[in-house]
Write a structure and sequence with these properties.
- The chain is of the alpha/beta class and 764 residues long.
- It has 33 helices and 17 strands.
- The chain has four domains: 202 residues, P-loop containing nucleotide triphosphate hydrolases (Rossmann fold, 3-Layer(aba) Sandwich); 76 residues, Arc Repressor Mutant, subunit A (Orthogonal Bundle), CATH 1.10.10; 266 residues, 3-Layer(aba) Sandwich (Rossmann fold); 172 residues, PCRA, domain 4.
- Strands 11-12-10-13-14-9-17 form a seven-stranded parallel beta sheet. The protein has a six-stranded parallel beta sheet with strand order 3-2-6-7-1-8, sandwiched between helices. Strands 4-5 form a two-stranded parallel sheet.
- The longest helix is centred in the C-terminal third of the chain and has 23 residues.
- Bound molecules: adenosine-5'-triphosphate (ATP) and magnesium ion (MG).
- Its EC number is 5.6.2.4.
- InterPro entries: DExx_box_DNA_helicase_dom_sf, DNA_helicase_UvrD-like_C, DNA_helicase_UvrD/REP, P-loop_NTPase, UvrD-like_ATP-bd.
- Belongs to the helicase family. UvrD subfamily.
Length: 764
Amino acid sequence: AANAADPLLEGLNPSQERAVVSRGPALLIVAGAGSGKTRVLTHRIAHLIRGREAWPSQILAITFTNKAAAEMRERIGDLLGGAAEGMWVSTFHSACVRILRRESERFGYVSGFTIYDSADSRALLKRIIKDTDAASYGFTPANASSKISKLKNELLDASAFRTTMNDADPRDRLFAEIFTMYDQELRRANAFDFDDLIGQTVQLFRAHPDVAAVYQRRFRHILVDEYQDTNHAQYSLIRELTRPTDPEQTMRLTPPARAAELDDNGVIPAASLTVVGDSDQSIYAFRGADIRNIVEFERDFVGAEVVKLEQNYRSTQNILSAANAVIGNNFDRQEKNLWTASGDGEKIVGFTGYSQHDEARFVAEEIEDLHRQGLAYGDVAVFYRTNSQTRALEELLIRSAIPYRVLGGTKFYERAEVKDAMAYLTSIANPYDPITWSRLLGAPKRGIGPMAEAHLAIFQEAHDLSFHEAMARAAEVPQLGPKLRGSVLALADMLARATQMAVGGGTTDVEGDEAQPAPVGDVLKLILDETEMIEKLRAKRDPQDDARAENLEELLAVAREFDVKHPGAGLIAFLTEVSLVAAVDDLDDTSGTVSLMTMHTAKGLEFKAVFITGVEEGLLPHQMSVDETGGINEERRLMYVGITRARERLYLTLASTRATFGDISAAMPSRFLQEIPEGLVHWRQSPGEVTSRGGTQSRALNAPRGTGGGYAQRPSRDSSVAFGGPSQGSSAALQEPSNGNMQSALEKWRERKRLAKEAQASGG
Ligand code: ATP
Ligand code: MG
């Protein structure tokens, strides 16, 4: 009450207020979904800055996605009435990249280092597996990469693996070799993989106490959202950043430490740490997230204060009761007492379709209904467990001309043509990286085949050159014929000009010494013009290639936008932004569109209306989790995350038959449905009401909308189900359409999507 006049505390309940104003060395906020954890974190930061307890530059706030970081930064700006300059609000990965770029010379990298995404890592592993003949031992790029990733998340490198492995097992020995080669290759390529970003930052701090001291001094307040999903490497990073500075290093700091900064021991005391989390929402065990980080917080951070939040401000009572009931079936948890003042609200709606298309049709119709009732499309989200479920949903949304976006699907930066163009920029920043160099050689095709590439690579290695330098000396590589030599030299020349632009452009400023880098957009424009990538795609007159050309134009627009937003920041800053966005989430603006995403992506978000689709055994819980220890509990937490995203309306949908990999099989309702008290759900069509024949047949014949399009007449797998049922249909009818059919169906589908987009744009 004493703070009633403080606008930053207004409307907060007593526990929330405590979480904002409390000032100890460590604070743990544990609470269920929707209880205001993220909100409290945001207010706490604003409170620190506004009260002049900290400069914005002394704050490091960690969020789970870039999108969440952007939102938090904006919220803090709103609360303070102006952007807080110099504040780090970012993901673990972004924060680490910033640190590594600044300190790269410490470990013999150049600051233009490449960040390998998972596809790049797998490309590298593919070569290594081939060289070591590891495929015959069952290694694939995918399984090797996930094994390496798990180890790196535990901060274990190849030599650490060697000490723990079974020496008698040839597979282990081989894996150790693959791992060693992989890390060696990364280093030679001046590249980090995604897990290295965090692991290497921890190593950097441990190996260089003077560097650690700089950041320990700088960040006085460290705040971490979604702490339950941190893995060991991330936890270690927090530990390093929250140590008091080393006494020896304290004396050497520049600028020198002021007396006011030092404690009684003559060192800069540990930064204050605030973490918020909900162990019921831990859903990343498969990526090494360790729930113990939150459970053992008090032991790790002595003197930690714990604040519990129990009031949920997001959802209606019905939704909350369903969430509480489901998660109550996990026995390994601390009981929570989450309540809401917002009344029962609408019942949860259940629907069982006879197929995934029938399910999708229901979702689309219901969204239209909600929309007619005045709900904006942007307030609606559709969740699913696996990405493969999107196709049926997208088809029906397109048919109904409902605007939507898929979050975290095939991401913009993962598209082949975008990666091709990006390879040029990446290679300019890091001409030692073989993966990107190899990619650009063949994009577009210019007759430089694998043999020529190998000869150049051998020459490069023998003379200790960058790949660009090696190409410029193609005349010295006798194996290259005159024609090949010509195209290599032309490419080298183009890259040299682009590099020149990117680093200095040859222009000098008024003082005459500082070279001015050209805007990133100009560099990219040069590349696109000289390679004629866009023209070549356009010339094919294929709608899919048109879409690819558009993507390249979009990339150019992204670069230009970056130049405007960050004048003079340059190529490396651009690549950093892109690589991080690409790897974690996308920038898509979802205002005005329905959002489609996996439940993993949904974490931390909220929507007025939520559809959870495919609530079936084998999907949710996922088949893969069933045999794994703790697997079902993790799936249940995922279900809990999904349910608690909904504010007012929640739909749980499933299908009684589902096609996977071309087979149609009967689907069972998820066990999680049975865990929800019956009275909370109004079944529009319950699992018991659906058989593969009978009542649902008429539905198939009277498809309410969109029957006019050519694609609706495509022989559908589902109609065969409706008429015959999976056991009676001829097997031919049940198979996936042949590839050709599939292709043309897909094309038509894309065409419709384009038309729908146009209709939308013209307000139709
Ligand atoms: P999650 O566990 O899903 O991440 P959370 O605990 O971080 O949830 P928030 O997202 O911070 O919860 O808050 C949930 C919703 O409740 C938000 O819309 C937020 O603005 C609102 N909210 C939180 N606290 C209050 C409050 N004291 N008064 C009004 N609204 C509140
Ligand atoms: Mg949150």
